[in-house]
Structures are given as structure tokens and as C-alpha cells.
Amino acid sequence: MTSARASGVRRLRGLKNISWLTARQLDRLSSALTVSVVEKRAIIIDEKHSHDTAFILLAGVARITCRNRKGARTLVIMVAPGMIPGFPPPVAGISYNFRCEAVTVCRIGTIQLEALVEISLGVASADFKRMAESYLGRWDLVQLRCANFMSCTLEERLALILLELSENFGLPDPKGIRLSLPARHRDLAELVGASRPRITEHLISFERKHLISRNSRQLVINRERLEAFLEQAHIAAGDAEFGKARRS
Predict the structure, then answer these.
(1) CA-to-CA distance for 172 and 164, rounded, in angstroms?
(2) DSSP E strands, 103-181
């Protein structure tokens, strides 16, 4: 092993969340990395980057930020040297605009996720993803939903839940996506933290606005209309916050 490769392996061994790799694995990883320098305050990754690439912070400090419902960018995680966490998968009706930014000058190593999984675990990337998704489920979706609910109206929370259910239990329908499970008002009320009568009231309103409909007593979701409704609510919330800031 050359001195440069040995130095690269030592740097990787010092990274907390990949230090468990064997010397052979670290050597292979060091050889496979493409290393670049990112200047202070520059963007390392944003949501436009491919999810098939893994990013490793070799030196420096970074941070992950996103936009809250009012449109302001807010800090989510400070990132120390090691693997940079991947962004959560998109959630219908919620736009977070995640990005990772350099707090100091950073050295970044990049590698195809498929190659990283094969080096680290000795299995195919697709198989690992299927196993992880089956075991962990979509707890990230639940966390994002709950965090977003903190600043949503009941009407918006119900729209988000209906979009989520249409993703997980949806069947094609001429009027949109038909839910394959009964959408009981009591269950919807528990999911959004409201009373059953309030949910019934809002579902009637959604039907009048053609955001949802019925097909043989099964609920049909018009995803495009619901997403447009949430987008308008997001814009209105941002405008209200801007107006409040100007008045103060």
C-alpha cells in the first residue's frame, strides 16, 4: 500500500460512523472515492443530486437545513466528519427543500451508493434497500408528517393524511386514486388528532370542492387537486408571515 493510500485509509478509520469497516474494506473505499473541496457556505448536496450517490465528509463541518412551512430556511442537523445522512424520501404535499451546506471549508468524498453497499456489506444495493425498507418501514414519513402537523390547520392535516393513504393503499380510478381500505372517520380523526365530527365536516367540504369523491362507498382521492390545495395553503402561510414581519 502506498503512503497516500495508507493516509487515506487512516483518515477513513477516524470517521466515527464508518470506523467499523475492516482494513481491507477501508482500503477499497479509499480507492473508490472521488475527493473534492467545497468552500465555506457553498452547497454540498441539495435535492437535485442523485439519490444513488453517497457523500462522505472527510474533513470540516457541515449542516443540513430545510425550509419550514413559512418558507424560512432552518437548521436541522450539524454534520461532523463521516457519512452525510441521506435526505428523507419525498412526502406528497410537503416541500422541505433539504440541502447540506459547508460551514467551514470541507473535503468531500463521493461514491456510488451501489459500490458503497457492496464494499461495506458484500450485498447488492437493491437487495439491501428492499430489506431496509421492509424492516424499518416509513418511520421517516411519520416523523416528517408529525413535524409538519405542528404548523398546519386541521384541513391541511387531513389533506396530508389522505395523500399518504392514497400512496400506500391506492388503486387507479377514473376520478383519481381509490382507497382499498375503508376510510373510517374515527381512524382519520386519530391520525390527525381531531374529533370525528370535525373530520366528517371537513370531508363533506372536500367533496364539495371536488378534492375527493366516492365510488361504491370507497373514498377516491384527487391527488392533483389536494396537492394544489396544500400548495396554495403554503403560499398563503408564507404571505401572512411576510405581512406580519413588515408590520412589526
Answers:
(1) 15
(2) 106-112, 170-173, 176-179
One-character DSSP codes across 173-200: ETTEEEESS---HHHHHHHHT--HHHHH
Q: How confident is the model at residue 45 (pLDDT cuts 50, 70, 90)?
A: very high
Smallest CA-to-CA distance from 66 within 43, 83, 50 is with 43
User: Are residue 18 and residue 124 in the same domain, yes or no?
Assistant: yes
Return the sign of the alpha-carbon dihedral for residues 71, 75, 81, 85.
negative
Q: Assign residue 216 a region: left if phi > 0, alpha if psi is -120 to 50, beta otherwise?
A: left
Spatial contact of 96 and 231, defined as CB atoms under 8 Å apart: no
Which of 80, 111, 136 terminates a domain? The answer is: 136
Q: What is the pLDDT of residues 119-142, one digit of tens each?
A: 888 877 777 777 766 665 666 666
The number of distinct structural domains making up the chain is 2
Q: Edge-to-edge, what's the strand order for the sheet holding 53-59?
A: 34-38, 106-112, 53-59, 82-83
Residues 90 and 130 in one domain: yes
